[in-house]
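QA checklist item 7 of 12: single-chain prediction sanity check.
[x] sequence parsed
[x] length recorded as 325
[x] structure emitted
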Amino acid sequence: MLLPEEPAILEVRHAVRRWLAQHCPGGVVAVALSGGPDSLALTAAAAAEARTVRALVVDHRLQTGSADVAQEAAARARALGCVSAEVLAVDVTGSGGLEAAARDARYRALDSARRSDPVLLGHTLDDQAETVLLGLARGSGGRSIWGMSAYDSPWGRPLLGVRRAVTHQACTELGLLPHEDPHNASPDFTRVRLRTEVLPLLEDVLGGGVAGALARTGEQLREEGAVLDSVADTVGARAVVDGELDVAVLADAAPPIRRRVLRTWLLAAGARGLGDKQLRAVDDLVVQWRGQGPVAVGGGTPDARLVVCRRRGRLNVGLDDRRRV
């Protein structure tokens, strides 16, 4: 399909072109298409800029008529120039609320269907601002407000510098009427309230530019965090001995480096859902040692907690079936 030379679709195309040049010069990608304005504009731009594009349409089956919406999105993808368009029907189950369960089901389906191709996602600068703000509210340290990366293999996000209003306008320029998911207007979801209430209020009170400032902050912290991660990897290579952590080596490191080493070590040992409070409690075993008992971290089993202990100058992690409270 020959796309019009209009400002909004050109901005989207240029963003996709830059992403491809940096992350996927071969130009073979899949694109996650919901039928909404962001993913629809992305699909059109990708079909124009990439060598081969496959569209993957996830049907969450949460609303009446969702199968028809998915089929219509697939047909649009083919009309826009995608070599194929596959509908992936999923079951949304699990803990953490509907929003989290739908996200998990969607990513599993996309990962299974992508073959070896990166998957382009339609996250915009506005989505990035919401993500940074959510991370800030959690208060879990710098990593929680990094926001999303332009490429976190296999997930590509070419539009993180493009405003949501641009993708909407791009669809208008293309003569496409996007599907508007009712969930995207429901105040039952935290992101919707951020989008419709919190961010507009911040823009009003602070005189505009908030979304861009939040996105830039996330990017700057992510770049600085990458440097700290590299230093932590070097320290961790010296501190980890036979799967345990040498306290003497770790104690000499600066606090941000120490906690990065601890986080990497714990995740490798099966820890899950690590927060700042847990990391600091484990860190106290290194620098505030008073003979305290094991520190429980998430990631055990129904019958045993995963705990970190200090013995003979080393930290070790394992299951504790005594179920201490």
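[x] summary fact logged: Residues 75 and 311 are 62 Å apart (CA to CA).
[ ] second reviewer sign-off
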